[in-house]
Amino acid sequence: xxxxxxxxxxxxxxxxxxxxxxxxxxxxxxxxxxxxxxxxxxxxxxxxxxxxxxxxxxxxxxxxxxxxxxxxxxxxxxxxxxxxxxxxxxxxxxxxxxxxxxxxxxxxxxxxxxxxxxxxxxxxxxxxxxxxxxxxxxxxxxxxxxxxxxxxxxxxxxxxxxxxxxxxxxxxxxxxxxxxxxxxxxxxxxxxxxxxxxxxxxxxxxxxxxxxxxxxxxxxxxxxxxxxxxxxxxxxxxxxxxxxxxxxxxxxxxxxxxxxxxxxxxxxxxxxxxxxxxxxxxxxxxxxxxxxxxxxxxxxxxxxxxxxxxxxxxxxxxxxxxxxxxxxxxxxxxxxxxxxxxxxxxxxxxxxxxxxxxxxxxxxxxxxxxxxxxxxxxxxxxxxxxxxxxxxxxxxxxxxxxxxxxxxxxxxxxxxxxxxxxxxxxxxxxxxxxxxx
Length: 437
Fold this sequence. Notes:
- This protein is of the alpha/beta class.
- Helices cover 46% and strands 13% of the residues.
- The two termini are 35 Å apart.
């Protein structure tokens, strides 16, 4: 995956500028949307050139996308001009970008995040592409790729699970056992603290506040189940509901075991503390592996599903965000962009991408998985065995609500965890701005 789940901010629901003006003042709002511009050349663009807007600015995904587009250029005799922007800027600016003169094809996310832009007419339907690629995808993936109107708007490339990651050698050294339930999990965290480790790596500073959503999602899913979690994400349940209060209680129980100073640390730094054996665990996505170049180190990394809290729900849900591509509303080279998307949705492209970036799992059933490392194989099994698949906090909800209300509230609360009553009242007071009955 690209720098994941990784901050996914989009001005959805009430305009992000409007919300920020209300919360921060007009001056702050004017600075809120960084520049994201297309590399297309207007109405007279070269019919042999396709422009591609990518959020894969980190070294590994950038190299992986280059491998894919290079292969397409060789096969098609078309030229792909790539416009790469760092992940956070891409997400913050995406709405303005799509309303301007975007690139023909751009990276984005499945499910709710795709459906928003499709509904707003900021993306083109892809039914003709799916006539070509459809046989390679499951019904669940097909559903994630459709808009509310039933048309396809998304071409998937890969997905990846969120779980609790650790180093095998650390567990072996201390005799730690994999926890299956909440009491075992918190007991393990206590023991790690006694052993001089930061039990849970933490980094949500700067633009990385999205990284804490994984823990909240799993706590809510395990305590209250998939149906309630999705109702909450879609604005159909109150944040002051006693079930959310229960989730915050659980999070407060876990908070003392977080690595201190998380608000001043990036997710990469937090992940590195796990790799350096300073932290015992990390609630994070498989993209953790993007930082690993030593295969012996990669072989020492493992994960387990987030532990059970309520036996009614067990561990039946896995967060497995799906990344891929969309077509802009008025592509300058529609035919070339269609050919590129057909290529991107094929098994060959997935194999090329995963060959460079082993921190993801191919979605196309025809992709060659023979070279998968142990983490990829285990990831594929975890996702395949899940009863429910969620995308991620701000992918399953209105991202404007998450980025301007929920994330700031969570980050402030994590600095001084209390019973959460004021936090939840504040979030609930903003819900109606983004969701209508």
